């Protein structure tokens, strides 16, 4: 049985885990991954870990340029990666992307993925923009794959030359997480909650409600929205504006004039972040998102599932979710007059409103159903794992081949030495045989000599014998 593959999902702030990619960790856990989540520390980490069936590891990161804090976070991530030894690290949001891709590269994480969901540098200028562009290039270079969450964001990355086209891919039709259309739909329970909220806010059926959901910052177009609504309200007192989301005074604060208008205007309802925004969408008529930049915003998809027409700016992501004249209206960026005109148009033109509202849910569900996005993301993970395994096997073959090549010359030397020893042995045998043959020849020669000497000796003996009688005769005379 294969052991679970270790996957780390990382964002700069935990709100991104809770909202932007909610449910993905649990889905991957159900499909064989051992999932860990990393983000800045927060109070509800236990609840998030239980909901996503994943371990939460706190590593504090900042969204601002903070060299010392960033360095501390980088060392902390390196330590975590060395301990966990993940096979995949997948980041979301710019700072988490930079730090985790660097840490992953340093510690040898084989699969390093980064999702791009909007670029703050689009609204920056001068030296700050150059620095942010450099940071993006570093993050993309350290990543093995980069996922822009919209087609136009991919075009911007290519035009900016942050990386090559071979490293980029948009999953499906775009979006970081898609939309759970079964969750974002009108039900009797949600309608009951919506009625309770309307009663609490003292809203009647006569009011026409515009809603904004998100951080209350300049970059989200809140300045233009408040200005446009103030002018609209003077002509149409039945108009109501709900601002649903937290302030971020330190990062991108609204002007004092805008804050004062929000506080003093009775037709502007200010609510902090709500975990469940569905009742507010249910009681509203139009969503407004006048952002300066986006990746692929979730709120227009969520609002569309509640049949709300949307007014959005002509920017990446928003202009891919909304089709002008079909499920909403598209206006220029930072143009409060155009925004005011679009809001008034939907308030007055009932036929147009009904057309856009009638198309809203269908155009979202057909293109951005969440289950489809998750399945495509899982397929990406599986493809990366397959390629990694193939590269690993290929590397093993190369290492084995190199080892065999290194052993080859030694084997040849051994064969040569054996041949030499054999030759020496044979030569020695030949020499021994020659020596034995020489000795044999010498013996035979000596025997022959001895054999030849015997007749000679015999002749000498006979000659002596023949001489003896003569001596005796001579002596007798």
Textual characterization of the structure:
With 477 residues, the protein is of the alpha/beta class. The chain has two domains: 5-170, 3-Layer(aba) Sandwich (Rossmann fold), CATH 3.40.50.2000; 188-369, Glycogen Phosphorylase B (Rossmann fold). It has helices at 14-20, 24-30, 45-52, 67-84, 94-107, 126-142, 151-160, 188-201, 222-235, 256-264, 278-283, 299-305, 318-321, 336-348, 350-368, 370-476; strands spanning 5-11, 33-39, 55-58, 88-92, 111-116, 145-148, 208-213, 239-244, 268-271, 286-289, 310-313, 328-331. Strands 3-2-1-4-5-6 form a six-stranded parallel sheet, with helices on both faces. A six-stranded parallel sheet has the order 9-8-7-10-11-12, sandwiched between helices. Helix 12 (299-305) links the parallel strand 10 and strand 11. Helix 4 packs across helix 5 (94-107), helix 9 (222-235) packs across helix 14 and helix 12 packs across helix 15 (350-368). Residues 440-477 have low confidence and may be disordered.
Widest β-sheet, arrangement of strands: 3-2-1-4-5-6
Shape label: elongated
| SSE-based structural type | alpha/beta
Note the gap between the termini.
Answer: 134 Å
Average pLDDT figure: 88
Q: What would you give as the CATH superfamily of the largest domain?
A: Glycogen Phosphorylase B
Order of helices and strands: EHHEHEHEHEHEHHEHEHEHEHEHEHHH
How large is the share of residues in beta strands? 5-15%
Whole-number total of structural domains: 2
**Unreliable stretches covering 5 or more consecutive residues:** 440-477
The CATH architecture of the largest domain:
3-Layer(aba) Sandwich
Q: Report the radius of gyration as a whole number of Å.
A: 45 Å
Assign the CATH topology of the largest domain. Answer: Rossmann fold
């Amino acid at each position: 049985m294969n052991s679970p593959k270790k996957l780390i999902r990382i964002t700069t702030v935990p709100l991104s885990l809770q909202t932007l990619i909610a449910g993905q960790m649990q889905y991957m856990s159900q499909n064989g991954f051992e999932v860990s989540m990393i983000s800045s520390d927060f109070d509800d980490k236990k609840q998030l870990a239980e909901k996503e069936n994943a371990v939460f590891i706190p590593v504090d990161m900042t969204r601002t340029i903070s060299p010392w804090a960033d360095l501390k976070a980088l060392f902390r991530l390196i330590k975590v990666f060395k301990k966990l030894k993940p096979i995949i690290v997948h980041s979301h949001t710019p700072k988490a992307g930079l730090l985790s891709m660097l840490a992953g590269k340093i510690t040898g994480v084989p699969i390093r993925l980064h999702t791009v969901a909007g670029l703050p540098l689009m609204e920056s200028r001068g030296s700050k923009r150059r620095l942010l562009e450099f940071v993006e290039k570093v993050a993309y270079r350290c990543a093995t794959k980069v996922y822009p969450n919209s087609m136009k964001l991919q075009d911007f990355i290519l035009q900016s030359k942050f990386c090559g086209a071979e490293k980029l891919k948009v999953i499906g039709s775009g979006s970081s997480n898609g939309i759970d259309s079964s969750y974002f739909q009108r039900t009797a329970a949600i309608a009951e909650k919506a009625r309770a909220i309307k009663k609490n806010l003292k809203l009647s059926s006569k009011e026409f409600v515009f809603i904004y959901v998100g951080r209350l910052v300049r970059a989200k177009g809140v300045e233009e929205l408040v200005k446009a609504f103030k002018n609209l309200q003077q002509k149409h007192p039945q108009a109501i504006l709900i601002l649903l989301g937290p302030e971020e005074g330190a990062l991108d604060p609204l002007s004092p004039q805008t804050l004062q208008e929000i506080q003093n205007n009775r037709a502007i309802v200010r609510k902090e972040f709500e975990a469940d925004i569905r009742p507010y969408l249910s009681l509203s008529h139009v969503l407004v998102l006048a952002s300066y930049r986006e990746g692929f915003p979730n709120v227009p998809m969520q609002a569309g599932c509640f049949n709300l027409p949307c007014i959005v700016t002509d920017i990446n992501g928003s202009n891919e979710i909304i089709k002008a004249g079909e499920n909403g209206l598209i206006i220029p960026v930072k143009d409060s007059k155009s925004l005011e005109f679009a809001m008034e148009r939907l308030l007055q033109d009932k036929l147009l409103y009904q057309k856009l509202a009638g198309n809203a849910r269908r155009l979202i569900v057909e293109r951005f159903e969440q289950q489809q996005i998750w399945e495509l993301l899982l397929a990406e993970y599986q493809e990366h794992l397959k390629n990694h395994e193939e590269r690993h096997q290929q590397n093993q073959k190369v290492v084995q081949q190199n080892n065999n090549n290194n052993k080859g010359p030694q084997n040849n030397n051994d064969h040569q030495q054996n041949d030499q020893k054999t030759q020496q042995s044979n030569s020695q045998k030949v020499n021994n045989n020659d020596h034995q043959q020489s000795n044999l020849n010498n013996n035979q020669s000596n025997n022959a000599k001895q054999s030849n000497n015997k007749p000679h000796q015999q002749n000498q003996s006979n000659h002596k014998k023949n001489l003896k009688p003569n001596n005796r005769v001579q002596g007798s005379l």
